[in-house]
Amino acid sequence: MTTIDLASAPDPLTVDLTDPGTFVRDDLHEMWARFRAERPVHRHPETPGRPPFWVVTRYADAMSVYKDNKNFTSERGNVLATLLAGGDSAAGKMLAVTDGARHRAIRNMMLKSFSPRALQHVVAGVRKRTSDLIGQVVAKDSFDYAREVAEHIPMGTICDLMAIPPQDRPQLLAWNKKTLSSEAENDSLDDQVMARNEILLYFSDLARHRRRNLGDDVLSTLVTAEIDGERLSEEEIIFNCYSLILGGDESSRVSSISTVLAFIQHPEQWRRFKAGEVSTNVATEEVLRWATPAMHFGRRALVDVEVGGERIAAGDIVTLWNTSANFDESVFPDPFTYDLARTPNKHLTFGYGPHFCLGAFLGREELKALLDELRENVATMELVGTPERIRSNFLYGYRNLPVSFGAA
User: Fold this and answer.
1) Residue 55's CATH number
2) Which of 18-27, 72-81, 179-188, 254-263 comes out lowest in average pLDDT?
3) 342-373 as b/e, with b when 16 or more CB fall inside 10 Å?
């Protein structure tokens, strides 16, 4: 059993959750454990230029808000950055920040493209891409797993999902890297905004082309869909294309990096998995719980409501910290032990309720493909440098992972 020392953790009321630097510290498990024990639901004080907001850290309380689309809304933002800024420009157009009947209609329409049957060809591409990439790096003395493997799998998957022409993919990847949390320190805000605008313009052009050249991809679904007899607006199409990159690229990439790092840090789990003592399906869920790439999601209260014994006023910002809930001692026995055989494992990595991640099946398939490939073709893994933590209050993970693989 793995224990932690709460005495060394900071007082919850002294922690600034708006500061990305908070999340590169080494005692995050201790910090969140103290939050759950002493201030499970509390009001984060305002910081310069930013209003106060509520912090929800226990599993049951987070679940209660995720399920409640009557008293809470995502339409004014669903992450801390946009909530603190006053809202999201895609509200009411992009699935993640749309509620009610419109959300249900768009989601049901898009779900047709995300069923296991519809995704068979995409999953086949995931497995081939993963196999090819691992095959290329096992022969090297050392390499950066983030750059040479992890960043290519999710973007390739998204491009397959939307039938992005092969010649356009390198440019789309380059633009997207400029907008990501893990790359933000390397580019100015202007560069990031310009890259985001280039992506939106690209999808606008591609949507016009796709209307004349329909296929069985997600973009074809979006450009032909009708809700109450009307086609989706151009903004709805573009924003929902962009949301697939937002939701599917960076979180999948850092989960992949976390998978390899966790095996290196927990060699007994790698031995068990390699020996076939744990199935890929079961191991995938612990990988997802342990990684929890999206640390939080957010809502605004529509009415006065109680959460965890605290009275929240209409209009208040409420943040749900998956990175804490996934280690809640009341739900996960011995939560600080990485146990690939853990069952049950009802983590909140993909959220819950009406906004449960649309791409959860595909995210799992990406990890399953990686796990199977590692078990089959990699004998040893070794860290050959120091991984650098991403400075973000939304995304948890590492920017790089210098490693060496031994071929099986």
Assistant:
1) 1.10.630.10
2) 179-188
3) beebebbbbbbeebebbbeebbbbbbbbbbeb
